[in-house]
Specification:
Length: about 270
């Protein structure tokens, strides 16, 4: 008895699945207040100042952000209009605290002990001009199996950022070893064994893909310590789309020697 495997159907299903994933990814980037809506990044000092295009007066004292505004400035925090002084305390490295200004959101962030206001505007040129993310064609050859080796205890890996002077601190769970062609590569994986991801560069970085890093969600480690790396789903960090993000760069351990000709390409090329 001969069993025939319909490889054409399998390839079509793989490609269709990738297109559905890619379409959902692009839909997420169209969020009116998402990363593509960034229209400004203002670093605060201990001197009260007015920020370009931002109502109110802003400054930092004793690791707190102070905002002085009048009701006519239309600045709202947690449903309350600022009328006088409001104090915010954003957490280091965490998503920012939101100050609403009609259609816009001013996100107050703390990065490496510095404070900033990030402007989200649905009318931002980057969002208005967005037509999609360029990517390599989906190819099953870029789906590889790796072996996860956990660290005895989680380690903190410090990387730089696309903004000079900033650092990012990542919790690393272990390493993933895998083979691409004739090359054996290793990546440090962040997160937990139940939900891993990697930041990496490769020989395409700065050529056809964004130079600082791409991110790949891996998910959970299997019972036999294997993981699946589908490089077709490697994505750009927000800094690939906007100059107002503070993304990390890939750790030195994750600079692959091979060219990963899969996943998202540099949208600015």
């Amino acid at each position: 008895m001969t069993i025939t495997v319909d490889t054409t159907s399998t390839a079509t299903t793989f490609t269709d699945d990738w297109h559905r994933w890619h379409d959902a990814r692009e839909d997420g980037l169209r969020d009116p207040l998402g990363w593509l809506s960034l229209a400004g990044l203002h670093w605060l000092t201990d001197s009260p100042e007015r920020l370009d295009g931002v109502p109110g007066t802003w400054w930092v004292t004793d690791e707190k952000v102070f905002i002085t505004a009048q009701p006519a400035d239309r600045l709202d925090v947690e449903g309350e209009r600022i009328a006088g002084v409001r104090i915010l305390t954003p957490a280091e490295g965490a998503p920012g605290l939101s100050v609403f200004n009609e259609e816009r959101v001013f996100e107050v962030i703390r990065r490496s002990g510095q404070y900033a206001v990030r402007v989200h505007d649905p009318a931002a040129p980057t969002l208005v001009a967005f037509t999609g993310v360029p990517a390599y064609p989906a190819d099953p050859r870029w789906v590889v199996t790796g072996r996860f080796t956990p660290f005895e205890t989680a380690r903190t890996i410090t990387t730089g950022a696309v903004v000079d002077g900033l650092e990012h601190h990542h919790s690393a769970a272990g390493t993933i070893e895998f083979r691409i062609g004739d090359a054996v590569e290793t990546l440090v994986a962040f997160g937990t064994p139940a939900d891993l991801k990697v930041l990496f560069t490769d020989a395409t970085s700065g050529v056809t893909t964004y130079p600082a890093a791409r991110s790949l969600a891996i998910g959970a480690v299997e019972a036999d310590s294997t993981v699946t790396l589908d490089f077709n789903r490697a994505v750009n960090l927000p800094c690939a789309f906007t100059d107002y993000a503070t993304c990390p760069v890939a750790p030195a351990e994750n600079r692959l020697r091979v060219a990963i000709e899969a996943g998202e390409q540099d949208p600015k090329l």
